[in-house]
Amino acid sequence: MEQSIEQINRKIEKGDAVVLTAQQVCDLVDSGEDIRAEDVDVVTAATRAIMSGTYAILSFPVESSHSFLRAKEVYMNGVPAHVGPCPNERLGILDLMLFGTDHSVDDSRYGAGHLFRDLAERMSVEVKVVTDKGESFKTHVTLDDMPYAMLYGTRHAFKNYSAFVNTSDEPAASIFHAMEFGPRLTEATISGCGQINPVKNDPLLESIGIGTRMLMNGSEGFIMGPGTRSSAEKPNLTAFADMHGMKPEYMGGFFTSAGPECIVSWAVPVPVTSDSVLESIKERDRQLKMPVMAVDKRACVGYSDYGDVWEGTDLMIDFSPNECIGCTLCEPAEMCPMASISFEDGEVKLDRYTCFNCGLCSTLCVTDVYTANLGSINFELGGESTNVPIVLRQSDKKRALELSEKLKEQILDGSFRMTSMVERIRT
């Protein structure tokens, strides 16, 4: 059975289309349902994770014409911006590129991911400009002051990412952990939303291609092609979207022991155009291979699967403030990569709006204020079975599931219309 995206769009317009989330399809398969291609027209897939390959291009006025020749350096809330490529000579306008991994020169825990979220929140951002003559001035802008603000992903939505461990005898700092990795395989971190990830649901990129409309951080954008380091075994994608339509709850900054990183969310419609696409959609977490990487040598030391990560585990952290015993130093609050834990009048608070459900707090708290089953990874190492507990997740499957549901609703109510690809993506 084959059908085109145009045919599916017509069915949606008539109210005859069946749209399911990737999770719904997997749940039906687990319950014993025989899902055929003619039973579903579109599957919505999503992911929310740290995605280092992110940058923004912003253009906006900061001064009147002739006020300065051109900018040499620019900082936004202390985050360095790369000036250009257009110099905008004597126009008082900046064209800037900001890398998602750039950090503030004033605050080591604040990075471009935090800045992008602050802009989406419509917060006022300080802009410091150093001109080519060495003069400097400051002003403030909001996202609404920017005629042009686009977010780009150069390496997003990996079909399957990795688990990370430290095989050395010494602690190791890494972007893959909010703390230093404990030595000798004492803890693991993971990334990847498994069976609901967009590229997992179309790994051969038969339905997703150049020109596919998608949602990045809740804003409509388009897929441009393969991402950097994309391969047939681990494909990923490049895309862009307008920041003006982005939802702050789907983005942000995440602090790691090697500095702040950038959180990005994707939601992508996967039209069921053939039986082979459906077969990929039906694959569950236990069938998805997950490489285990040693951060101390950045080498693969084995393979687990996403069943270890998401089957039978808790997607959300359980919060019981009455269990707090008032430690002199609250390690969960100190180490929370989202700064979501605070104290007010001596009472502990958890900001669910910013919480990433990474689970680190549940591994640090000496009581049961924060609890969650994060699972553990199992793999063969040196001919022996190895089990390493997961202490931190760098993907938020709970919010990703919400995103896939929202995209499903938008497709059905007509507010999101699927596009046919211009060309297939070759990995």
What does this structure look like?
The protein has 427 residues and is of the alpha+beta class. The strands form four sheets. Strands 1, 2, 3, 4, 5, 6, 7, 8, 9, 12, 13, 14, 15 and 16 form a 14-stranded mixed sheet that branches. It is globular and about 70 Å long. The chain is 15% helix and 34% strand. It is built from eight helices and 24 strands. The chain has helices at 5-14, 22-30, 112-120, 275-281, 307-310, 331-335, 360-364, 397-413; strands at 19-21, 42-50, 53-61, 71-76, 79-83, 93-99, 125-131, 136-141, 148-156, 163-165, 188-190, 213-216, 219-226, 237-242, 252-256, 259-271, 289-294, 299-305, 318-319, 341-344, 347-350, 370-371, 376-381, 384-393. The longest helix has 17 residues, at 397-413.
Tell me the radius of gyration.
Answer: 23 Å
Note the overall shape.
Answer: globular
Helix content: 10-25%
User: What is the terminal-to-terminal distance?
Assistant: 25 Å
Q: Please, what is the average pLDDT?
A: 96
Q: What's the number of extended β-strand segments?
A: 24
Please state roughly what percent of the residues sit in beta strands, choosing from under 5%, 5-15%, 15-25%, 25-35%, 35-45% or over 45%.
25-35%
Largest sheet features? 14 strands, mixed
Number of helices: 8
Uncertain stretches: none
What structural class do helix, strand and pairing data support?
alpha+beta
